[in-house]
Design goal:
This protein has 483 residues and is of the alpha/beta class. The protein has helices spanning 2-6, 10-18, 24-42, 50-64, 107-112, 156-163, 180-186, 220-230, 274-289, 305-320, 338-349, 352-365, 371-394, 417-421, 428-433, 461-474; strands at residues 45-48, 77-80, 118-122, 169-173, 189-192, 213-217, 260-264, 293-297, 397-401, 437-445, 448-455. Strands 1-3-2-4-6-5-10-11-9-7-8 form an eleven-stranded mixed beta sheet, with helices on both faces. The radius of gyration is 21 Å and the shape is globular. The protein starts with a helix and ends in a 9-residue tail after the last helix.
């Protein structure tokens, strides 16, 4: 049964559970067994919760007898370790929160169901800052495709867990590409919804104007189902949009006939490896053969997105991480006097990348430099928003590579921050604008997965998922459990 269930998509498993062909407990047992089998090699998790998964699965099975259980509730899931989980430690990949146990669940988890079957808290770059999951205080996650390669980041543990079959799907967060880029490198689907589509209440903030929770799945249908589970307005989140959530599965198989698809010129040239570029071109031709109108589109200011992001995001980091001072929760290093306690706690609790971004952000916001850096970056952000608005007047969906390369070696870029930041070249503009985007596995290059990114206008996730489903059909890729 283990092999049979692991071969199913989340949707297929959910339908089996709904039909009482398999129980939620049996699915949890299979997930726990797979975690035990591969976790020493992959390191997808900071914390595993096998007993909790079984306990909650039994409650789902009991409620199922009386009806009223949502389709997805019986499917075990991995949750990125920046999402608050009541009674289960939430570390953000940082030593400063090593023993922190939240008193409540994030709203997105509660939307999923009252007994979310969590198999573990997925490893990530510290406070979601990174593109390789090497910045975690709990060791790097390894790419299931090749264990000497990174899985991407910051949601590398969430992506690797799905690729390795340690659960059928997972939740990640995307601030500059942290769902899509690891999805691309691990050969799974990663989706960033529109900013405000999914509540951020209970998400420990990195950059509040950019963060968004998103699904990581084996295929696009699973992504549609998981987005259905977590989306919705939340009065506890002031940035949550009070917009109706459509049925994402209803028109998923509608195809792309009549859709206008624009390939982004600026993201297909310098800095993009040949393999990813060729895969995107092949998928674009496939969409054209399937009935889409395909052309080239320009986003002239997108090349400045990286520079603007690395002013705006660190500025918000500087503000958000100021709360970790050793007073209220998390690590406290004893010292003579409160100011010395602050200094020692933050010095020992934060890793190098977190410190780097705090300092960059504090500098950009400081007196005399605010106008030169932060205000200028926000002007660039507005230009990029205007570029996308013009593009969507001509095209319904935009297409590009998700990442400029396939998965690179562990340790290869960790000492070169600029080279690491460049990995988010294709994904960052989406976060600056706040639109939805999805990465699907489009094929292989040098035996490693390549992600194809599709982007659409605000709150058009239903159309985006339909286009992604069609792209998935013409892609040269088939999900297989790794390692």
């Amino acid at each position: 049964m283990v092999a049979d269930l692991l071969g199913l998509s989340a949707y297929e498993l959910a339908k089996r559970i709904e039909a009482r062909e398999v129980s939620a407990r049996e699915a949890a047992e299979v997930a726990n067994a797979r975690v035990e089998e591969v976790e020493d090699d992959v390191n997808s998790f900071v914390t595993i919760t096998p007993e909790l998964a079984i306990e909650r699965a039994e409650r789902v099975d009991a409620r199922m007898k009386n009806g009223g259980v949502k389709l997805w509730e019986g499917v075990p899931i991995a949750v990125k370790d920046v999402l608050s989980t009541r009674g289960v430690r939430t570390t953000c990949g940082s030593k400063i929160l090593e023993h922190f146990e939240p008193l409540y669940d994030a709203s997105a988890l509660l939307n999923y169901g009252e007994d979310m079957i969590v198999v573990g808290k997925a490893n990530c770059d510290e406070f979601a800052m990174g593109s390789s999951t090497e910045n975690s205080a709990y060791g790097p996650t390894r790419n299931p495709w090749r264990l000497d390669r990174v899985p991407g980041g910051s949601s590398g543990g969430s992506a690797a867990a799905v690729a390795a079959g340690e659960g059928w799907w997972s939740l990640g967060t995307d601030t500059g590409g942290s769902v899509r880029q690891p999805g691309a490198l691990c050969g799974v689907v990663g989706m960033k919804p529109t900013y405000g589509r999914v509540s951020r209440y209970g998400l420990i903030a990195f950059a509040s104007s950019l963060d968004q929770i998103g699904p990581m799945t084996r295929d696009v249908r699973d992504s549609a189902l998981l987005l259905q589970a977590i989306a919705g307005h939340d009065p506890q989140d002031s940035t949550s949009a009070n917009v109706e959530v459509p049925d994402y599965l209803a028109e998923l198989e509608g195809g792309v006939a009549g859709l206008r698809v624009g390939v982004v010129k600026e993201l297909m040239g310098e800095g993009i490896e040949t393999g990813p570029r060729e895969v995107v071109e092949r998928v674009a031709r496939g969409l054209e053969d399937a009935g889409a109108e395909v052309g080239e589109v320009s986003l002239p200011h997108s090349r400045y997105g990286l520079s603007a992001y690395y002013i705006i995001a660190p500025a918000e980091v500087s503000s958000n991480l100021a709360r970790f001072d050793g007073v209220r929760y998390g690590l406290r290093v004893p010292a003579d006097g409160v100011h010395e306690m602050y200094r020692k706690t933050r010095e020992e609790g934060f890793g190098d990348e977190a410190k780097r971004r705090i300092m960059l952000g504090t500098y950009a916001l400081s007196s005399g430099y605010y106008d030169a850096y932060y205000a200028q970056a926000q002007k660039v952000r507005t230009r990029i928003i205007e570029d996308f608005r013009a593009a969507y007047a001509r095209y319904d969906v935009l297409v590009s590579p998700t990442a400029p390369s396939v998965a690179f070696g562990i340790g290869e870029k960790i000492d070169d921050p600029l080279a690491m930041y460049y990995q988010d070249l294709c994904t960052i503009p989406v976060n600056l604008v706040g639109i939805p985007a999805i990465s699907i596995p489009g094929g292989l290059s040098n035996g490693l997965p390549v992600g194809v990114q599709l982007m659409s206008d605000h709150f058009t996730e239903a159309m985006l998922l339909r286009a992604a489903r069609a792209a998935e059909e013409v892609a040269d890729f088939e999900y297989t459990l790794k390692p």
